[in-house]
Each structure stands twice: as C-alpha cells, then as structure tokens.
UniProtKB/TrEMBL annotation:
Residues 33-103 form the Inward rectifier potassium channel C-terminal domain. It comes from the Eukaryota. This is Inward rectifier potassium channel C-terminal domain-containing protein. InterPro entries: Ig_E-set, IRK_C, K_chnl_inward-rec_Kir_cyto.
Length: 113
C-alpha cells in the first residue's frame, strides 16, 4: 500500500492523503485519539562510545501514546546557552522543560501535493 505525501491544509488543520485510490481526511485530534487507542509506542535507542576508555554506552526508552508520554504541540525549551565568556553551557534545570510549539502548518507548507 502506497501513501501519497501527507499535507496539512493551512486553515482547517486537517491531514489529507490517499491510499489505494481512496481519499481520506483526518484532523489532528483524530490522529491523537487513534494513536492513544491503539497504544502506539515510539522506541528510542541511543548508542555512544566513550573516547578515553572506548566503552560502549547504550540507552533505551519507550514512549507510549496511551500513557501520554508523547505530547503534541510542544517543543523542548532551549537548554544550551552561552555564558558571558561565550562558552556553551547546558542548563540541566531546563533539560526537560516544554514550551508551546510554533504553528505546525509552517512545517508542512513545503511538502509536495
């Protein structure tokens, strides 16, 4: 099954596309509801190499839509800032802080279709 590029209509906030020749249209709320009801989950795997000891480090995390681990219309607040000397500093107090995301429609305006 092939899906056409997904578009976000500018003013209505509806997702549009087609599958097997049939057109469909979903609102953001319908998508959120579906992901929650079907207990969709995102798995994140991170692997890194510690340069001095060459030790491999791995991390795993599961984010579940039903448990509200995934939030819509949010972004992480900037947590890497420059101090007065111009050095980059990580502010761990803001590391998991969320802020309202910019309007989603601007991210999808450049998609074909």
């Amino acid at each position: 099954m092939e899906l056409s590029p997904v578009r976000l209509r500018k003013l209505t906030g509806t997702w549009q596309g087609s599958s097997a020749g049939k057109a469909w249209s979903l609102t953001k709320y319908q998508i959120e509801d579906h992901l929650s009801r079907c207990q969709a989950e995102v798995l994140a795997l991170v692997e890194g190499l510690e340069p001095i000891t060459s030790a491999c480090t791995q991390g795993r995390m599961s984010y579940n839509f039903a448990l509200e681990d995934v939030l819509f219309d949010c972004a992480f607040a900037p947590c890497v800032l420059r101090d007065t000397a111009g050095t980059l500093v990580v502010d761990f107090n803001r590391f998991q802080e969320l802020i309202p995301a910019p309007a989603a429609q601007s991210m999808y305006e450049s998609l074909p279709g």
